[in-house]
User: What shape does this take?
Amino acid sequence: MDTFINQFLNLAIAERVLPNLLTGLKMTVLLAVITVPLGLVVGLAIAALQEVRSRLLDAALIVYIDFLRAFPPLVLLVFIYYGMPFLGLELSSIQAVCAALILNTSAYYAEVFRAGIESVPKGQVEAARSTGLGMVATLRFVVLPQAIRNVLPDLMSNILEAIKLTSLASVVTLPELLRTARLAQGNLFNTTPLIVAALLYLMMLWPLVRCITVLERRAIAR
Assistant: This one.
């Protein structure tokens, strides 16, 4: 038992590495703050464009969504960071991570928003259009408020997964929380930094998990 505690729950090592882990946590939060809103905006734009009903546009959007949902985000990140310089576009670590995560998550958000839009009764759309509202105004004031409310639990779940995806940044040596913990583990030959990092993730994400649970219960009760 003492060996287990020393290797996984060493308080002295936890206190020693905590400042560095908190610095890594700041980078994780920064990545989430950048990629989640932008991913949502891109995903919403894609879902709205699908309402245009153009065969060519629909085909292009389907390819975009299907490709990015099927393509591993880790490989996408490696390609953007290490491959794009060969095409004349060199991005910093944080730019590459943000680009990869926005591309990947926007495809999932687009499908969630599309499902929400399709859940709104067509009669309401027709009624709004009959009052003189244009397509954009109908989408903004009638469809989207209901659509987002209908899929809010799924949307929050995708946001939760998107935040956890920020750990992929360690692949391109960006000092986010997971990479900082792994470096500390390697330097100290002790697993405690990873346990502390996991607890920091838990503290950051647990309120969001509880929020998702509440929203799901309310959706079922409706």
Observations:
- The CA atoms of residues 50 and 58 lie 6 Å apart.
- The chain has a mean pLDDT of 88.
